[in-house]
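Now for my pick.
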Amino acid sequence: METRSLLREDRRADFASGEPETDEFFRRYAGQNQFRHHIGVTYCALAEGKIVAFATVSAGEIDPSLLPEETSASLPAYPAPVLRLARMGVNELIQGQGIGRELLQSAVDIAFEMRARVGCVGIVVDAKPQSQGFYERSGFVVMPVTSRVAGAGAPPVRLFKTLKRSARVVAAARADYTPADSLAAEMRRRASELGLSADEVRSAVDRLLG
């Protein structure tokens, strides 16, 4: 399974998650938001060259008083930077196979990169009520939902995942990582996003070292 950011030429018209609003967003607005407005980036999971899932993320901020106490207690009173998971969808034919969890882990990785570069305390998602359990099983906790966010119909469930807890998990999983391992992982991620082949990566490294 390959994961990379959305490309302008990617085919989106036939994507079907079973959620009409999610599918319409991906087909009509994901490209505009990324390439024209620059307000979010969509990451895609591909199988045999076909997009089978996507997740859209953007930078945001939140009032610390709305965060869980374990996070808010150590923060100053002004708005805290977060990564917003704006949309996520998985092809209805392969739901339940762990693709959503993989994309969610990609969002966690992006949040850690955001924390290192500009600051980030965690991930916020406004989820459909039927998706609440999925996020809770991945370490998210429920937060208050304001009337501005709720909108018409059944209000979304706002959830938050702190990077403090995630940092302990990642640190344990990567305890034996060397700096070379970290560099290799970052190069693989960037090569995947740019659609580079193994030969093209080797050529780029040769030019860098030469």
The domain at 2-175 is CATH 3.40.630.30 (Aminopeptidase). The helical segments are 20-36, 69-72, 99-117, 132-137, 147-150, 163-173, 179-194, 198-209. Residues 147-151, 168-177 have pLDDT under 50 and may be disordered. The CA atoms of residues 139 and 161 lie 6 Å apart.
